[in-house]
Amino acid sequence: MHTSDEIYHRVLWDPRFDPERFVMGIAERGAPPKRVLLGDFVPGGEIPWHRVRFFEADGQVVWDRARGIDRLDETLLGQVGPVSAPAPGDILAVPSTSRTAVAWLPPPELWPPIQHIRREHDRQIRRWPPHVNVLFGFVPEAEFARALPLVAAALAETPPFTARLTGVHWFKHREDATVWLDPAAADHEPWARLRESLELRFPLCGSHSHGFTPHLSLGRATDPHPLARKAEALLEPMAARVDELVLLSRRGDEPMQVRARVLLGSGDIQHPEKPTLPGAPPPSPPV
């Protein structure tokens, strides 16, 4: 991935680019990024390069530090597919809840080695299936009827793609760490595109301040190194087709359940007859 100063100087000096088409996003403490015309930015001034969060060309993101987007050259070929800005009536500004999510579930044949690790290390195994959250939290289940057409419109903008699940990493917390499998090893861009399309339509959902890192949680540990080594030894590289996302919700004390499936590329909506999750662990026996 190019650095922010490389993108800046490339746009400024490459005659194939028009700097007036470009906007830079500058990180602001405690506030959304400040948008600055590329021509107004002063290199070496008060703003260091690490505060440059993104570049846009004609309103489309072509470089984003947090989301791993780096597609400046595609603008020369006209290949940057636009993420459509929804009309005002196509936005659902409803506060989110941690009891719902828009996620991708890997196919059941990939579950056994993942669940083998999660049974020992993931306290959430009885609440969540193996999953990659694209938008969490999401709107309450009571709003799903209004949300589904907007999810469908968002997913219609991204064709199905192949996810390569390989590489084990972790997020460090105050007292422990979450160890996770990387589903974006092949390409981060389609995941970022899905996230961006959904965020535009659900502005009060998800976390807009820390970027988006697609991940499949394997468990938590005080010292993540042993768990990461174990996962790397047990999990061979896997690949799966991402052709749908699901809307999940949790009622009462039950686990997250699939309430609807939305297909990528077409936006078609499917409602399962009975919301079940294949391969879900059996309930705990009574004590």
Q: How would you describe this structure to a colleague?
A:
With 287 residues, the protein is of the alpha+beta class. It has helices at residues 4-13, 74-77, 111-121, 144-155, 189-201, 224-234; strands at 22-28, 31-37, 52-57, 60-64, 69-70, 100-104, 132-135, 161-165, 168-172, 177-181, 216-221, 238-242, 244-249, 257-263, 269-270. The longest helix has 13 residues, at 189-201. It is globular. The N and C termini lie far apart (53 Å).
Short description:
Residues 265-287 are annotated as: Disordered. The chain has helices at residues 4-13, 74-77, 111-121, 144-155, 189-201, 224-234; strands spanning 22-28, 31-37, 52-57, 60-64, 69-70, 100-104, 132-135, 161-165, 168-172, 177-181, 216-221, 238-242, 244-249, 257-263, 269-270. It has 287 residues and is of the alpha+beta class.
Write the topology of this structure:
Blueprint (H helix, E strand, L loop, with lengths): L3 H10 L8 E7 L2 E7 L14 E6 L2 E5 L4 E2 L3 H4 L22 E5 L6 H11 L10 E4 L8 H12 L5 E5 L2 E5 L4 E5 L7 H13 L14 E6 L2 H11 L3 E5 L1 E6 L7 E7 L5 E2 L17
Antiparallel strand pairs: 1-2, 1-3, 3-4, 4-5, 6-7, 6-13, 8-12, 9-10, 10-11, 13-14, 14-15
Helix pairs in contact: 4-5
